[in-house]
Structure formats: C-alpha cells, structure tokens
Design goal:
binds coenzyme A; about 180 residues; four-stranded antiparallel beta sheet; Aminopeptidase; single chain; about 30% strand
Length: about 180
C-alpha cells in the first residue's frame, strides 16, 4: 500500500470490479488502445494485477481517494515480459476513469509509485511508454520527472504492422 496526500494505492478488492469494468468499457478511456475491454478481459486483468502485487510486492495498484474511498483506476509498476522489447525491466502505468481526469491524481499516484520503486523495491530504472498520439499519458511522464528516451522507441509487437497505435514512445526514470 502507498499513501499520498490525496490518494491510497492498494491491492484490488472485489468492490472495485464494477467501476473497473465500466471504465474499461468507456471508449474515451480506451481511445489509445486497440479496443475497449469486455467484462471478462477486465476480470482477467484485475486478477493478474492482484497476483502481481502478491507475488512481487508491487504492481498496478487500485487507486482510491483518501477519506472518500471511491475507486479511480490504477497506477503503479509492472514487470515487463517478452515480447516487449524493453523486457526484462519494470514499467510504470496509469489508467483512470474519466471523472478522475484533470485533477493531478495520475501524476500524484505515479510519483509515489516511482519513489516506492526506487526506495523500497531498489529498482535502478523504470520506463514508461505509450502510443505516439497519447499526449495526456506523455504529459504525466514529463510531469513526474521522467526523461524522454527516443533511442528506446519501438513498434508494439502485439499490434499488427501499420496499426495507427503501433509506434510507441519511451520515457525513463533512474534511481
Ligand atoms: C493518462 C491519464 C491518466 C492522464 O490523466 P490526467 O488527468 O491528464 O493527468 P493527471 O491526473 O496527472 O492530471 C493533470 C491535469 O490536472 C490538472 N490539475 C488540477 N488540479 C491539480 C492538482 N491539484 N495537482 C496537479 N495537477 C492538477 C493539471 O493542470 C493537468 O491539467 P491539464 O491536462 O489541463 O494540463 C488519463 O488521460 C487516462 O486515464 N487516460 C486513459 C488511459 C491511458 O491512456 N493510460 C495510459 C496508457 S500508456
């Protein structure tokens, strides 16, 4: 668990499922992904996030507002796996429901997750990447002090050649 001024980053609870399914079915939230997520896909991702946190001691945490307790989405760190060209390594990621945008929550949560990654987990490097057109996510990377790494940019191996979201741009923070 990680606490910030306004937020709590914690492991997932079954009460997160409905708002999680709803945000992943929102085309605006998913506009930089190939498709919205079905209920089954969201259930699968929630289970994997939980397992990752239990196994590694860190992961994509569920984010709630302190004192309010409502589920906003996720922010955190995740181990990169093949076929991602940056694997092995650890990436930072964030996805919030639309009602939580524009209030600095993603940057606040992501800064705390990076600090936790360097100070508690002992990581040396954390990367973040997104589609070239995902400027809101790139703004989070810059706001939390990550540095652009053009030399690491890549075509996402899971997307078909020529897909509009294929090219990914990379940022990095180091300990
Ligand atoms: C990526 C995403 C989390 C960014 O959300 P965001 O609201 O733009 O980012 P933050 O939470 O850091 O908020 C920053 C904004 O809040 C504003 N803000 C308001 N109050 C603030 C405060 N107290 N502190 C800091 N910023 C504040 C900032 O000025 C900034 O506004 P701007 O975008 O007009 O410049 C969001 O767009 C999202 O969930 N997208 C869909 C999923 C996705 O694409 N994820 C990334 C995949 S790689």
């Amino acid at each position: 668990m990680i606490e910030t001024e306004r937020l709590i980053l914690r492991n997932w609870r079954s009460s997160d499922l409905e708002p999680w399914v709803a945000m992943n079915a929102d085309p605006e939230v998913m506009r930089f992904f190939p498709a919205v997520q079905t209920r089954e896909e969201s259930e699968g991702m929630m289970a994997r996030n939980r397992d990752h946190i239990e196994r590694e001691g860190f992961g994509l945490w569920a984010v709630e507002r302190k004192g309010v307790g409502d589920f906003l989405g996720f922010t955190g760190l995740m181990a990169l796996k093949d076929p991602n060209p940056l694997a092995p390594g650890v990436e930072a990621g964030w996805r919030l429901a639309r009602h939580a945008w524009g209030q600095g929550y993603a940057s606040e949560a992501a800064s705390a997750a990076l600090k936790d990654g360097f100070e508690r987990i002992g990581l040396k490097s954390i990367v973040a990447f997104t589609a070239t057109t995902n400027l809101p996510s790139q703004a989070v990377m810059t706001r939390i002090g990550m540095l652009r790494r053009e030399d690491l940019d890549f075509d996402h191996p899971v997307l078909p050649k020529g897909h509009p979201l294929e090219r990914h741009v990379v940022w990095e923070a180091t300990a």
